[in-house]
Amino acid sequence: MNLEIRLAAGDSSARLTAALAAGTRPEAGTAEALIARCAVEPDFFVRDMLTWALTRLPPASTVPRLRAELLSGSVQGRSQALHTLSKIGDRSAWPAITRALLHDPDDTVARTAWRAAVALVPDEERAALAGELAAEFGRGDREVRLSLSRSLVALGEAAEPVLRAAAAHHDPVVRAHASATERLLRDPDAGFDLAVHEATRVVALGPERKETTAC
Asked: Which Gene3D superfamilies match (predicted)?
């Protein structure tokens, strides 16, 4: 029975076993079937195994196909391709992480693009990437904002100028998000919710009252 049929089995355990077998005995010719299944697989654990199987293959057989998948009209296809590229870690894929993906209207795709970009960005592009990510301050719910903050924190010093600029933004939501991210950059052990609460309080009160209310 060929891989495509086994990966399309009705039982998720059977699909998981097929993906495990593909990674355990990697063959370059399986890349296309694995990537195609990533775009439609409903089970998280099977998708994770598919990604693992793809990381076991030579990048020459996977990276070009994954880059092509980034142009897919399928939200899951784009997201899974980004996730897999970040796990493979081949920086030749960096040019495929476009502005359109970083600002994708789908939150799942955008969040995965942020993580992939941080994993693949060349050192000389880190500051430019931080600028792109900063344009998303204030976007989405708690999980989206936390993902953005973590991505910017991962960029380290390259993110500091855009954090300072965003902390003076006219939108109080953007200011609070940027300030919370800056706090996390200074203290990675600080909780995100606490950092957001403190940043929101400071934004609401104004910086001139920060010291007088600290107690």
From this structure: Leucine-rich Repeat Variant
Tokens of 131: 């600028």
Are 37 and 7 a contacting pair, CB within 8 Å? Answer: yes
What are the start-end ranges of the E strands in the chain?
none
Q: State how far the Cα of 56 lies from the Cα of 49, in Å rounded to an integer.
A: 11
Q: Virtual CA dihedral for 190, 160, 118, 185, nearest 10 degrees?
A: -10
Q: Convert the pLDDT of each residue in 127-182 to its tens digit.
A: 999 999 999 999 999 899 999 999 999 999 999 999 999 988 999 999 989 988 99
Residue 178's closest CA among 136, 118, 142, 117?
136
pLDDT in tens, 52-84: 999 999 999 999 999 999 998 899 999 999 999
Distances from the Cα of 105 to the Cα of 96, 100, 109, 147, angstroms? 17, 9, 8, 15
Rounded to whole angstroms, the Cα distance separating 36 from 128 reads: 32
Query: Which CATH code of 3.90.1010.10, 3.40.50.880, 1.25.10.10, 1.25.40.10 fits the domain covering 1-120?
Result: 1.25.10.10
| pTM, two decimal places | 0.86
Residue 145: closest CA among 170, 176, 177: 177
